Amino acid sequence: MINTNSIDASPFHEGELAIQDKLGKREIMATFGKRAVRSFMPEQHQAFFEQLPFVVAGSVDENADVWVSIVSGQSGFLSAPTPTSLLMTHAVDKNDPLHGTLNIAGSPIGLLGIELSTRRRNRLNVRVGEVISDNKVSFNVDQSFGNCPQYIQTRDLTFNRDPLLKSNAVQKVEFNTLDNAASTLIDTTDTFFVSSFITAKNNPKIEGVDVSHRGGLPGFVKREGNTLTIPDYAGNNFFNTLGNFLLNPKAGLLFPDFDTGNVLMLTGSVEILWDGHSALEGFIGADRGWKFTLTKGMWLKNLLPFSAKFDAYSPNTKMTGTWLEADKNKQAEKLKHTWQPLKVTKITKESNVITSFYLEGHNNTTLLPFKAGQHLTVQIPSSSNNSNNSNNKPVIRTYTVSSSPHELFYRLSIKKELSGEVSNYFHNNVKVGDVILAKYPQGQFFIDSTSAKPAVLIGGGIGITPMLSMAKHITHEGLRTGYTRPLHIFHSAKNKQQRAFYNELKTLADTSGGAIDYYSLLSQPELDEKQDNGFNLKGRINADVFRYYLPLDDYEFFLCGPQAFMQHVYNELLLLGVQDKNIFAEAFGPSSIKRKVLNTNEAPNKSKGISIEEADNTVIKFSKSGFEQRWNKGDNTILNVAESHGLEPEFGCRNGSCGSCAVKINAGAVVYRNNVSYPVETGQALICCAVPAKGVEELDLEL
Fold it and tell me: Does the global pTM surpass 0.85?
């Protein structure tokens, strides 16, 4: 329920509240905000500001333009005599927009204290109290709050001159268009600061100027002429900056050059880019973003009295992308349904029957981001002794990706099957350095890391692979966003020798802070394998197991494994009263479960507004091969028809889960005999399970 407290009683103004409301964060922030945002500095913050060598300040000039400045001084140039006051001794340059603001009592200023060596940062919203002298001013504290250290790169700071002596070397250069030097600094930066404001009207203690830090990998700021596009990453959900933008779309930016001491100061207008905006497509880690358009700017050269040597990227920064990567991802998306060369860079034995193959791009092939749980479609050359494939046509199969979407490779973990042509090829023939052909990961079996509903991941044998990908993804998103979706993982295997990924999954659970539980079950353990020594339970997964291990709650269940295993678990869940709509299952070929209730979320014919009835009789035409045949209701699928006439279309599953068989529809329409999971594009048909639709007199396919 939305917090009904008045805006005056909240530490957030109407813009911040509106965004919290829009993104579903207002209720939790109503409680947290009152604890985290104070009208005074706690002792820890007082001590923190007093030890800083510089502070970042946001201010507004006489033209209502907002700016960011950096004020430097040795430790002690800031002092906090009381929890509600701050004194600053300074040598702010006369060309700095902050200089004039400091001389006007009552002026609102945003302050950001940031310790580059430790990533600590705290913020103050203040107003100028008394102008004590030309180089000393007091501030009255309106708001004080801490900030998480995300996206801050550590640096070692060294002073090269006295920061409290005014320097004659500072040079001001004004401009209205970004020059080459400005463009270079923006393109290569990993750190900048942003200031925003709303005019203090109804409640000056929560309205005024704010200043904040932004960090990322070099290339995280996109520059097009005088317009910059900036991704907005997961943070503390205060939305101070975006809340100001919502009410007053103006911003000040400062890009520091920590090597030369130059600072680039910009002011201009902004536009918020909400989640899903096309401008953010392909950018990893961007929950939303904003565009900045320059009004005017200035260089203050030689301003900083210190240099700051780069040390290390924040762990959170490493979880984000760049615009160059985003552009590559967008280009790769266009090739999603084409075969791409991937190079085998590592092979690892996971158990006595399962081996992992690590795949990376070959010859500049981009690895497209995917959703945890999706599968990769691969093709291999047919073995010459395969009597079922006399033409040696490549063989196509699908395998779930067992790595996480944030990792820089695709990992396929493949079980060796006695009669499995593709699995045997990988186990017996593939070696490091080989190149295989694959289509980018696809599929509708994946997990939502943002859901508040706990999830139960159930993997039988090799069916643990999507669950591992999901668990790694949930863990990664927990580090990135601060929220880890609760998981309960049930892992069934015959014995320890066949079980894979035990240590990896157990480590995820042990380091999750209680968010992830992991249970290992062995159906036929060896005589020397004792319960509670490397596994939790002997036997098979059933309703009693769930009753014992799962606390009473509303869950989503994810199943993967052999068909008999999934059908058994599905039936057991129904006995417990779990609704069909809360059970999700991976399906390759014959591994599909038979549902007792139709899951309308998986009914593509209905969702696309297509008739679910088959044609009574029609003509199927394959335009490329010049073939025509009369087709009657109940006849074979289009793939079977094609194969019966000697054609060999690509396919990988025969149930509409991989998309390998997709072909263009020149005329007519199709329906599907089962609930396909692959997202069928308009104008295409998955011929492995498609038949002509009712009312179609001729179905013409590009085959």
Answer: no
